[in-house]
C-alpha cells in the first residue's frame, strides 16, 4: 500500500499512481473487532454486585438482568462439572510411568557449601573497610 506523505500536488514517485481526491476512502468496515457494539452487552451494576457476593440472587433476577444471571449460573454449573472430572486411569498410569523412578541429585546446594570466590576488587573493598573500622575504633578508645 502506498501512503502519500507529500502534501504538495505532483510529487508522486515514479511508477506509482497518485490517488485522486474523487477516489472513495477505505471504509472502516474491515476491522477485526467492530467498535460500538460492546456497549450493548455491558453487565449491570447489580449483576456485578451479585457476582461479588454483595447482593442476593433474588434481588438481581429481574426481567432485564435475568438473562445475565442465567448465563453466570450456567457457567458456574459447567465449571463445577469440569472440576469434578477425574483423569482416566490409563492416562494417570501413563503419567506415572513417565516419571523417573529415582530422585534427582540435589541440584541446589546450601549457601554455606558453595564455593567462596574472592575477587581482587572485593578483597580491596573489604581491606579498606577493615582499615576504616580499625581507625574509628582506635580513635574512640584513645579519647
Fill in the keyword field for this structure.
143 residues; mainly alpha; elongated; single chain
Task: Write the H/E string, N to C.
Answer: HHHHH
Percent of residues in beta strands? under 5%
The gross shape turns out to be: elongated
Approximately how much helix is present in the residues?
Answer: 40-55%
Structural class: mainly alpha
- Report the total helices: 5
State the end-to-end distance.
84 Å
Task: Find the count of extended strands (DSSP E, 2+ residues).
Answer: 0
What is the subunit arrangement here? single chain
Determine the mean pLDDT: 80
Describe the largest sheet: none
Unreliable spans are none
Radius of gyration: 36 Å
Short description:
The chain is mainly α and 143 residues long.
Protein model, in words:
The protein is an all-alpha fold and 143 residues long. The chain is 44% helix and 0% strand. The protein has 5 helices and no strands. It has helices at 45-51, 57-60, 66-84, 89-98, 120-142.
Topology:
Blueprint: H1 45-51, H2 57-60, H3 66-84, H4 89-98, H5 120-142
Amino acid at each position: 500500500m502506498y501512503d502519500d506523505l507529500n502534501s504538495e500536488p505532483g510529487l508522486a514517485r515514479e511508477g506509482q499512481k497518485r490517488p485522486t481526491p474523487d477516489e472513495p476512502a477505505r471504509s472502516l468496515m474491515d476491522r477485526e473487532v467492530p467498535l460500538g457494539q460492546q456497549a450493548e452487552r455491558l453487565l449491570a451494576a447489580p449483576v456485578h454486585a451479585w457476582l461479588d457476593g454483595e447482593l442476593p440472587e433474588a434481588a438481581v433476577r429481574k426481567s432485564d438482568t435475568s438473562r445475565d444471571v442465567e448465563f453466570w449460573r450456567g457457567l458456574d454449573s459447567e465449571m463445577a462439572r469440569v472440576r469434578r472430572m477425574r483423569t482416566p486411569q490409563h492416562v494417570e498410569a501413563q503419567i506415572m510411568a513417565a516419571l523417573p523412578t529415582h530422585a534427582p541429585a540435589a541440584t541446589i546446594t546450601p549457601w554455606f557449601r558453595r564455593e567462596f570466590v574472592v575477587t581482587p576488587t572485593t578483597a580491596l573493598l573489604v581491606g579498606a573497610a577493615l582499615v576504616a573500622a580499625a581507625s574509628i575504633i582506635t580513635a574512640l578508645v584513645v579519647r
